[in-house]
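Exercise 7. Given the encoded structure of a 619-residue chain, write a plausible sequence.
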């Protein structure tokens, strides 16, 4: 039986799984996983596979490539190995998948002792590999209306352990790639630009880029990379910037722009925007919300701003968040998380500072370093002048669904040169770009940003962040930290889009982490205006009640007779300083401190009650 003869996606998926290949579904016509944990959910379990494709019969079929090696040659016209027919013939021993756009994929198994990972364009130009941590679509999956299919007499009919190993020359190349980690091999390294030719060559390259319509910022970014990779020695950055600025004074060539951007095909191509869905179609395809990452705050494909004044401890807070997501722990003892890999891209802290902070936070959270050693990924970009549009290279080799959460710290440093954070159009464009990255990678983004200057206590949650108002509107969750009137404390508040509203939460700074502070009143935000004191004789205000403590709460609202949590909350209704969350916190703390006991109320399956602990009789 070959896959080409099967009648449905589910039959194909079951057929691959029966041979021993772990499979999972991707969105119909796309490469994006639709399972909660992406490729990590890949399985050979027939019941799970049947359940997935029963829910979405037209989902594409993906194979996880751990233990395999798939050589992905992009494009029908790709001439890789065309001048080395013997090597090309070596690849013919492997099963061959023909991709929708004319490419080809050769399937091997990794030799014993190897643990190769994915590469992008490092084996040769437009030749990628998929190995540990990767996946590929297989027949009869479709992309852009065209199907994957197995080449005649080269179908995948053997289990993974019976696939051929790569030829010796390919093993040698892949071992060299794994050892060098970053250095291209097989003749793909760029030509060196020697001293005396650097300025002229960079100006020539800049001219070619300007003719096809590239902006000054784009030319400068490209020249920086050429300067770092090829100039010996590299020119000073100011000199490179001057070249980009000088060339950018000239107008682009209209014909070159039209040819480079394929305006003719764009004008005549069918519209890329899919047709609107009827309500019936919408409900059939999107019955459930996206999978959560931080329950109550964030889902896959969504973005979240974290806003606070400078030096508040935002980075420490989000570092703890990253570790909680990586290990599936509750964040701030309040928000459940779904375990998944996390990528932190930091352009404020040096790598040495990050390496110093991580063990401190892990120790306070009681997280072992081995628990996050392979699930938290960190990239320090301080001093490397990367903006949000040049970050694409950081994500090229990441398979969609592999990363659960990406943290950008600090977001203002990823602003492109000459762009104004106070301009709504600019910020909307940037957030659209982040949304596109989140959708392609199937992950969430957390953007750390700074608050506006001045007093924050009287502002709405969505007005706390600095810059254009579109920043709070474009994101799915806008989370802010505002100073509490008690020193060293803040109040966490959030405006959410796909979750129920959350109540304000006081936090107290206990280096190096923030901890919930249920004893604080979240309404008492710090005010920069001094409080005016009225003469006692003229005061008509009700005397201020003392702050609520666990002891005072137990004395006021609990008796020897048990009452349910709902009844106790009803007693505390409209009492200043007592929200439903604080009532729950006081009940939990009182029980832990021996002030409250939990009592099972009468009746089968009856509710739980709470009563004041009776004092022990003295002997």
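Solution.
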């Amino acid at each position: 039986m070959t896959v080409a003869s099967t009648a449905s996606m589910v039959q194909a998926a079951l057929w691959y799984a029966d041979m021993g290949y772990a499979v999972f579904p991707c969105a119909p016509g796309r490469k994006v996983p639709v399972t909660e944990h992406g490729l990590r959910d890949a399985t050979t379990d027939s019941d799970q596979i049947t359940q997935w494709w029963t829910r979405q019969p037209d989902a594409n079929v993906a194979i996880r490539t751990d233990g395999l090696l798939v050589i992905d040659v992009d494009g029908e016209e790709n001439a890789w190995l065309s001048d080395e027919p013997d090597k090309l013939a070596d690849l013919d021993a492997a099963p061959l998948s023909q991709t929708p756009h004319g490419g080809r994929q050769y399937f091997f198994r990794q030799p014993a002792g190897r643990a190769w990972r994915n590469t992008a364009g490092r084996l040769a130009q437009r030749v990628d590999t998929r190995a540990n941590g990767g996946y590929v679509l297989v027949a009869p999956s479709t992309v852009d209306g065209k199907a994957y299919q197995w080449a005649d007499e080269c179908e995948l009919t053997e289990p993974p352990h019976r696939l051929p190993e790569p030829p010796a020359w390919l093993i040698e190349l892949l071992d060299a790639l794994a050892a060098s980690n970053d250095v291209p091999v097989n003749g793909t390294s760029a030509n060196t630009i020697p001293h005396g030719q650097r300025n002229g060559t960079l100006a020539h390259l800049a001219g070619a880029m300007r003719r096809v319509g590239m902006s000054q910022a784009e030319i400068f970014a490209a020249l920086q990379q050429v300067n770092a990779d090829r100039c010996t020695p590299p020119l000073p950055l100011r000199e490179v910037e001057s070249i980009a600025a000088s060339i950018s004074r000239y107008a682009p060539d209209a014909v070159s722009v039209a040819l480079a951007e394929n305006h003719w095909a764009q004008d005549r191509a069918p519209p890329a925007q899919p047709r609107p869905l009827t309500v019936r179609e919408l409900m059939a395809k999107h019955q459930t919300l996206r999978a959560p990452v931080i329950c109550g705050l964030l889902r896959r494909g969504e973005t979240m701003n974290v806003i606070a004044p400078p030096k508040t401890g935002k980075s420490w807070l989000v570092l703890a968040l990253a570790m909680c997501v990586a290990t599936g722990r509750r964040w701030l003892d309040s928000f459940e998380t779904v375990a998944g890999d996390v990528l932190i891209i930091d352009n404020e802290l040096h790598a040495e500072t990050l390496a110093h902070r991580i063990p401190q936070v892990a120790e306070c959270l009681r997280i072992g370093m081995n628990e996050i050693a392979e699930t938290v990924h960190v990239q320090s970009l301080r001093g490397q002048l990367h903006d949000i549009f040049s970050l694409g290279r950081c994500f090229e080799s990441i398979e969609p669904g592999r990363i659960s959460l990406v943290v950008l710290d600090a977001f203002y440093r990823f602003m492109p040169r000459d762009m104004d954070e106070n301009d709504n159009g600019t910020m909307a464009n940037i957030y659209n770009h982040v949304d596109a990255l989140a959708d392609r990678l199937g992950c969430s983004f957390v953007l750390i940003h700074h608050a506006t200057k001045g007093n924050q206590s009287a502002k709405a949650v969505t007005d706390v962040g600095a810059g254009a108002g579109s920043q709070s509107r474009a994101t799915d969750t806008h989370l802010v930290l505002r100073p509490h009137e008690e020193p060293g404390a803040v109040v966490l508040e959030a405006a959410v889009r796909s979750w129920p509203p959350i109540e304000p939460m006081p936090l107290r700074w206990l280096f190096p982490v923030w901890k919930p502070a249920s004893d604080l009143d979240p309404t008492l935000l710090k005010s920069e205006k001094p409080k005016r004191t009225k003469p006692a004789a003229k005061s008509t205000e009700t005397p201020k009640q003392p702050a609520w403590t666990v002891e005072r709460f137990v004395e006021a609202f609990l008796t020897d007779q048990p009452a349910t949590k709902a009844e106790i909350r009803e007693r505390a209704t409209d009492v200043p300083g007592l929200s439903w969350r604080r009532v729950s916190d006081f009940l939990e703390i009182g029980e832990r401190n021996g002030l409250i006991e939990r009592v099972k109320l009468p009746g089968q399956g009856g509710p739980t009650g709470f009563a004041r602990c009776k004092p022990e009789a003295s002997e």
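Remark. The CA atoms of residues 212 and 261 lie 8 Å apart. Students should compare their own answers with the one above.
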